[in-house]
Amino acid sequence: MTPGDWVPQGIAFCEVEGLAKTEEYTFVIMPDLSMNAFSAAVEPLRIANQLTGKELFRWRLVSQDGQAVHCSNGVPLGVSGGLNSISDSSVLMVCSGVRAEQTQAQSVSSRVRKHWREGGIVGGICTGAYTLAHAGILKGASFTLHWENLPPFRELFPDLEPQEQIYVMERRIWTSAGGAAASDMMIHRIAQLHGDSLARQVANMCLLPVPRSAQEPQKASIAASAGVRHSKLLAILRFFEENLSETFNLDEVGDQFGISRRQMERLFNTYLSITPKKHLMNLRLHHARAMMAETDLPPSEIAAACGFGSVSHFSRRFRGAFGQPPSRFALRSG
């Protein structure tokens, strides 16, 4: 791109006084990255330039080998170089997607580690935290990644604890959970550098009425997701989600929350149109599916981590839910 290409024309305008230093970004795009998350990260930078008529930001895409990369939706993204073309002065952001562990590359994590140790800012978009974890720079740091990948990430990196919020920016490590959260993070950066007025106008251009704070949760509450407000039912749903690896029977759960098993079953049927047993099984199976997609753990360990008494029981249930045995799903995911 030529210098003028960084400042596209638009109708809306926001004045920023004085001369501003251009901040450079290098996006390392990984195979099967989330196009949604990547575009949400880069568009606020483009809009800030457009609104001000100034080159406040500049960006480029690179890949491990300097070749084009396909997003998880099949769309190819061209790049302008490989890892050896990364500027020491740029903010280095790793953009990943649904198969972050399988597509992770040692050369990328090494380059990220070098950039960070030499004083640069590094980050991960969506599941980019996998690469940062392999780089060995997340110990003691606050960070986040997409909620869908939290269970397998915790299995792979038990000494690291991601935050379940939309983005985190600290210790020269920026991470966002992907999707619209990448825009929230970049809008926050725009506010840091150029003030709240520009940040609010960028948010308006992105059709985000109010930029969200970093501490916003990634997912709706259990109450909102389930569409219920019954306190005991919500407590039981929360208990299920937090104890998937534990062995317990529903009579014990009812006793714990002061209701009979029959009352519990009526609550689930009334509000969720499902039995407690079936709901718990669905939670365990989807948890297992996430772990199989992102880790190399054997079926025996996954079965135990998800509360199944045996591998054979796990395999039967998995096949019934997803139409294929765990072994075939693991091969396809890898």
Walk me through the structure.
By secondary structure, this protein is α/β, with parallel strands linked by helices. It is built from 15 helices and 8 strands. The protein folds into 2 domains: 3-205, Rossmann fold (3-Layer(aba) Sandwich); 222-333, Homeodomain-like (Arc Repressor Mutant, subunit A), CATH 1.10.10. It has helices at residues 35-52, 100-103, 106-117, 129-134, 150-156, 181-194, 196-205, 222-226, 231-242, 250-256, 261-272, 276-294, 299-305, 311-322, 326-333; strands spanning 23-29, 57-62, 69-70, 76-77, 91-95, 122-125, 167-170, 173-176. The strands form 2 sheets. It has a 6-stranded mixed beta sheet with strand order 2-1-5-6-8-7. The chain has a two-stranded antiparallel ribbon with strand order 3-4. Helix 1 (35-52) packs parallel to helix 6 (181-194) and helix 12 (276-294) packs across helix 15 (326-333). The longest helix has 19 residues, at 276-294. The mean pLDDT is 89.
Describe the global form. globular
Q: From the 3D structure, determine the CATH topology of the largest domain.
A: Rossmann fold
Poorly predicted spans: none
Whole-number count of domains: 2
CATH superfamily of the largest domain: Class I glutamine amidotransferase (GATase) domain
Count of helical stretches? 15
- Strand order, largest beta sheet: 2-1-5-6-8-7
The helix/strand series, from N terminus to C terminus, equals: EHEEEEHHEHHEEHHHHHHHHHH
Task: Name the helicity range.
Answer: 40-55%
Overall SS class: alpha/beta
How many distinct beta strands? 8
At the first level of CATH, what is the class of the largest domain? Alpha Beta
Radius of gyration: 23 Å
The overall pLDDT average reads 89
